[in-house]
């Protein structure tokens, strides 16, 4: 048992974890098949989510822009991971929060 998490007699949950090794072509075909099964409304929703997510990313990055001496600007690399962590946290808390993001 791990020193990070130890099981006790009160633990009642069981989880199974597995790995499947498949040819990349087979995985691509499965992904393509799932994509083709999406309804037009799902494609539109994915398109809206992607646009709003990218707009949110752009706004966040520009808010961390710092001017440089030569007249250009830079964005700290840590801003990307902070944005990703925050976006992930917000999605977990409210999976539909993106609907409130302006495009």
Automatic annotation (TrEMBL):
GO terms for cellular component: cytosol; nucleus. Residues 47-99 form the Hikeshi-like C-terminal domain. GO terms for biological process: protein import into nucleus. Pfam families: Hikeshi-like_C (PF21057). InterPro entries: Hikeshi-like_C, OPI10. GO terms for molecular function: nuclear import signal receptor activity. This is Hikeshi-like C-terminal domain-containing protein. It comes from Kipferlia bialata. The lineage of its organism: Eukaryota, Metamonada, Carpediemonas-like organisms, Kipferlia.
């Amino acid at each position: 048992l791990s020193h990070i998490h130890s099981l006790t007699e009160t633990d009642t949950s069981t989880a199974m974890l597995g790995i499947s090794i498949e040819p990349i072509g087979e995985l691509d075909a499965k992904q393509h098949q799932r994509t083709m099964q999406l309804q037009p409304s799902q494609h539109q929703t994915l398109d809206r989510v992607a646009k709003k997510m990218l707009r949110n990313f752009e706004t966040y990055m520009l808010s961390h822009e710092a001017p440089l001496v030569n007249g250009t600007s830079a964005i700290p690399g840590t801003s990307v991971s902070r944005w990703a962590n925050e976006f992930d946290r917000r999605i977990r808390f409210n999976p539909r929060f993106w609907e409130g993001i302006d495009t």
